[in-house]
From TrEMBL:
This is Protein kinase domain protein. It comes from Microscilla marina ATCC 23134. Keywords: ATP-binding, Kinase, Nucleotide-binding, Transferase. Residues 9-267 form the Protein kinase domain. The lineage of its organism: Bacteria, Pseudomonadati, Bacteroidota, Cytophagia, Cytophagales. It holds the Pfam family Pkinase. InterPro entries: Atg1-like, Kinase-like_dom_sf, Prot_kinase_dom, Ser/Thr_kinase_AS.
Length: 296
């Protein structure tokens, strides 16, 4: 880092690294504002055409309270592209789950509702995140209640307009990837909704729903066996909603995010115990007011 220079910013330390870039905590020289700077790796992962320039073009269109905000972009003196995002203090959702063993149904409903609202925003812009997972969700306590920020759009893509990005190349994390995502089909919003359902269950269980290495995770995702739900949700409206998001066949999965969000807000989780016992059962879908429609 001692040889790295970014105009107008002082780097304070490396905070993370992903497949496409390295993240640094930094401070704006004039304002003193803390920021997160993402610097594209010198040698990106093989078989990927996804670059930081594309990510910043995509993020520039997004403005939502539960999505990390792009503040600036540019190039270092040696022509390496960088992007400046708001700095989000707190912990990742993954860290929060591990610290508490699992989350209560009330907190899960609160945080996952915020995430679903964020998905309504990006899906309305025909953007698919493609790498939703607890590690890419920050939980902050800047006020009276915790709130989330969705991070890392390095694997995100537009679903409509041509971009030059190879959307058929598998992106994302197998443990949270929908079957069709692993098969390399063109991305739709249904990929994110499937991952959202898995993250919801992980909050309640305290552990990933799909376990094992990448190969084992892919085997489980591609299996026709339905994702297990806690027994107590078997006849609850929340269970019905989760089933619609976790259908293995994309054609049977709900594809209207705003419709899912509206149905979600009508669910009363106060009828459930604070800690949901995860005694899984596959069961059969019950009657639900959610009507399957085509994706955005």
């Amino acid at each position: 880092m001692h040889n790295l220079s970014i105009p107008n910013y002082v780097l304070l330390g490396k905070t993370g690294e992903g497949g496409f870039g390295v993240i640094y905590k930094a401070k704006h020289i004039n304002t003193g504002q803390l920021v997160a700077i993402k610097l594209q790796k010198k040698r990106p992962l093989l078989h990927t055409q996804h670059h930081l320039t594309y990510e910043t073009q995509l993020c520039a269109q997004i403005d939502h309270p539960h999505i990390v905000k792009l503040l600036d972009q540019g190039c270092t003196p040696d022509k390496k592209p960088f992007a400046v995002f708001e700095y989000v203090a707190g912990e990742t959702l993954k860290e929060r789950i591990l610290k508490n063993n699992r989350l209560t149904i009330t907190e899960t409903y609160h945080l996952m509702g915020q995430l679903l609202d964020a998905l309504v925003c990006i899906h309305s812009l025909h953007i698919v995140h493609r790498d939703l997972k607890p590690q890419n969700i920050m939980v902050s306590h800047t006020g009276a209640v915790p709130h989330i920020k969705l991070l890392d759009f390095g694997a995100a893509t537009f679903t409509l307009q041509p971009t030059g990005i190879d959307t058929k190349t598998m992106a994302g994390t197998p443990a949270y990837s929908a079957p069709e995502q692993l098969q390399g089909t063109p991305p739709t919003v249904k990929l994110d909704l499937y991952a959202w359902g898995l993250i919801f269950l992980e909050c309640l269980k305290g552990a990933p729903i799909v376990k094992g290495n990448a190969t084992e995770a892919m085997r489980q995702q591609l299996s026709p066996q339905a994702v297990s739900l806690p027994k107590i949700l078997h006849h609850h409206p929340l269970g019905n909603l989760l089933r619609w998001t976790l259908k293995k066949k994309a054609g049977a999965r709900i594809g209207k995010t705003i419709q899912l969000y509206r149905a979600y807000t009508l669910i009363d989780v106060n009828t459930l115990p604070a800690q949901v016992s995860f005694e899984p059962t596959h069961g059969q879908p019950q009657n639900t007011q959610i009507t399957q429609q085509n994706s955005l």
